Amino acid sequence: MTPQKSIAIREIAPSRRNSPLLLLSLLLTLCGGVCAAQTPSPSPASQGNQGLPESPAPQQASAQGFWARLAGAYREDWHPTQPAGPAPLRRGLPSPLDSPPFPNADWSYGGSPTIGEADTNTYPLMTAWNGAKSRTKVYGWVEPTVNGSTSSHSNSPEANDLFSNRLEMDQIVLYVERLPDSVQREHVDFGFHLTALYGTDYRFTTDKGYLSFQLLKDKHQYGFDPSLEYVDVYFPHVAQGMNLRVGRYISIPGIEAQLAPNNYMYSHSLLYSVDPFTDTGALATIQMNSHWVLQTGISASHDVAPWTPDAKPSATVCASYTTASVNDNFYLCANGINNGKYAYNNVQQYDATWYHKFSKTWHTATEVYSMSQRDVPSVFGPIKPELNTFAAACHAGLTTCFAPEYAAVNYINKELGPHNFISFRSDYLDDKKGQRTGVNSKYTENTLMLAHWIGSTIQIRPEIRFDRAWDRKAYDNGRRQSQFTAATDLIFHF
């Protein structure tokens, strides 16, 4: 799953009574001097960058109070009075998409900022705080959601709107971030990222060893997860730039990601629901030229901290190729590869993603993968699976067996204008032994949605969805073979 880049977004305590404003105030205080003091100065343009337009000048903080400036930032976002600035600094191929309305402007790859792209994003909170003058930024969003379902107990294996017929707070997210300057080619630069996530979606980022008792032991509906903590170091003289990321980051292949604004739709595909979520390790991303990006790294295996007994040294190797027309991108990954022996989420994943742009307003995104583990405990055997995982429906007489999964998803997306797009998703999952969903069956789902933006700070994404398990009853805790849901989220960025 890949952290995408949005025009206004990048890739909280375990109680409903905790105030997100209290957490925000605390992090603002902690960040304080760093965020206010780091004023960016333009890097001297290298020979290859001469002639590129300059980034727009940061906004100046007025003499008004903080809350008045914050209200003014939203007012300007929703009803702009200033003309758009010049195109931001960039090396390499142009962006293929408009963002908004799409969640990302580029054919994205995981585990790194887009090398050669400037960080020109501004956010209402930073505009009100210091006129958006610092490279270190604090921002985030809240995401309330609601769904109606033909299931009455659980929408599982559907992700995000897991709880049937509920109004929920899926995500309250706060980022503290500094992106390395990868446009310049003169000096090594650095960045970092910290994430605080609270809500029902913590279960889709939980990593064993990082406060995981909330889900694995206590089964909390709401929880807190420090989803991402990493340092980026940019080396300009390796090929056309290399980013080295060290820490905890999102598992890198795929179209979808855990953080709500980085996805086409509110709900997730079945393919996403059962694949790895986050890794802890080191990942090098190398821009070989305008067309090729290569990645290689090592992690502690999927969804486990290095200090847990389930940790295993695991290799990741990926390659991304974009055509000269920027109409096609191919992204291939071997993700978390080791001996494949059963451990907490130790799936061996081979993933391929293809993006294709038909025209200025039409594009499609397709992903397929194969995953597996060996020596998975049998539902008929004496070995208990790890907490919050499923045993495999092995043949009678076996205590363990090989458990594979195969999946494919396709999105067809149509831009309706600068604030709207529609998307249709079709999805297939074959959970051969039921080790990922708890029921060995073939699954399909089809979803139609509309995304609407208000400025670049509010997203509304209503959808209708139909799921079916083809071999046996798998929905509503085994009561239904099919499921219909209507749902929406609202993402409010700050």
From TrEMBL:
<keyword id="KW-0732">Signal</keyword>
<feature type="signal peptide">
    <location>
        <begin position="1"/>
        <end position="36"/>
    </location>
</feature>
<dbReference type="InterPro" id="IPR011486">
    <property type="entry name" value="BBP2"/>
</dbReference>
<feature type="region of interest" description="Disordered">
    <location>
        <begin position="39"/>
        <end position="63"/>
    </location>
</feature>
<protein>
    <recommendedName>
        <fullName>Porin</fullName>
    </recommendedName>
</protein>
<dbReference type="Pfam" id="PF07642">
    <property type="entry name" value="BBP2"/>
</dbReference>
<feature type="region of interest" description="Disordered">
    <location>
        <begin position="77"/>
        <end position="113"/>
    </location>
</feature>
